[in-house]
């Protein structure tokens, strides 16, 4: 089974990145922003995607494998 899913946003001088991490075997990650599929990162223990400057709304990291499925959604806000 998949462990807890953690989603976090980090800001640097010119870009934002969103990281999703979870525990489990043969994990597949899917990202959606406001219900639209963004991309499917590789299967590994942690994955990060970059966001465009004007991106806002709700971003979801969906984590699944052959045993279970977990999704976590956070609100994307502009960097300070």
TrEMBL record:
Residue ranges occupied by any Ig-like domain in the UniProt entry: 1-75
Classification via InterPro entries: Ig-like_dom, Ig-like_dom_sf, Ig-like_fold
Domain of life, per lineage: Eukaryota
Gene3D superfamilies: Immunoglobulins
Stated name of the protein: Ig-like domain-containing protein
């Amino acid at each position: 089974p998949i462990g807890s899913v953690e989603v976090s946003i980090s800001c640097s001088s010119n870009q934002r990145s969103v990281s999703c991490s979870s525990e489990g075997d043969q994990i597949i990650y899917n990202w959606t922003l406001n219900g639209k599929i963004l991309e499917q990162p590789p299967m590994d223990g942690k994955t990060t995607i970059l966001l465009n400057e004007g991106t806002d709304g709700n971003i979801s990291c969906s984590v699944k494998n052959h045993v279970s499925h977990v999704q976590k959604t956070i609100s994307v806000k502009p960097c300070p």
